[in-house]
Design brief:
48% of the residues lie in helices and 19% in strands. The chain is an alpha+beta fold. The chain has a single domain (2-220), classed as Beta Polymerase, domain 2 (2-Layer Sandwich), CATH 3.30.460. The two termini are 27 Å apart.
Length: 230
Amino acid sequence: MINITDQNELFNLIGAKLDEKVECLAIGGSAMMFYGAKTETKDVDLVFLDKKSFNLAKKALYDIGFNEKKNIKPIFAHYDIAKDKPVMMEGRDTRFDLFLNEVIGFKISSSIVDRVKEVHEFGNLIIKTISPEDIISLKCATEREKDRNDAASLIEKFNIDWEVIIKESILQTEIGGDVFPVFLFDFLSELKEEFKAEIPNDIIKKIRKIGEKMMIEKLKSGKTVKVKRL
């Protein structure tokens, strides 16, 4: 586990190893620490929007003592459908999860980039922090063990704009193919029931209605509908 100071020190080391500017998006626990919504994290999740930046960051991590972990499929739901597979780099106290253009089937849309809230520079490494709403959406996509706790913490700390999350789930269905509102409905329902997260009932009902409608439309068009996570 590392705290924000440890994380920033690692970012500075990476930035010092880079010979040119590299931009990426901070998601998950890393982004939450920038917002003060989490004191420490086990892994640092970064998304790159081009292969060159992805490879440069991976090399920089090798240069500062990290090594690539193999057989990471069991860690991520949706691993099999990801076009660009993530890379996991392990260090002594933490690990970096590197993603390219998508996070296990969840595409990084232009709207997510437009909603970036903060930009942090560490030498040649430029970190852009996605919005709390998009962190929650991505928590739904990755669905790792700790993601529900993190999402519940974000809901408690921030005044979440649920319409942003709903619209992004619709967009993800349009650009990715899966009926994301169904995934979102399951995820938020569990947060509300098991974690007592304050999610308005009308939001839950709206997401369910949208998901059902999109499933029917896809079935009528003859397309395969996936509503259960791998």
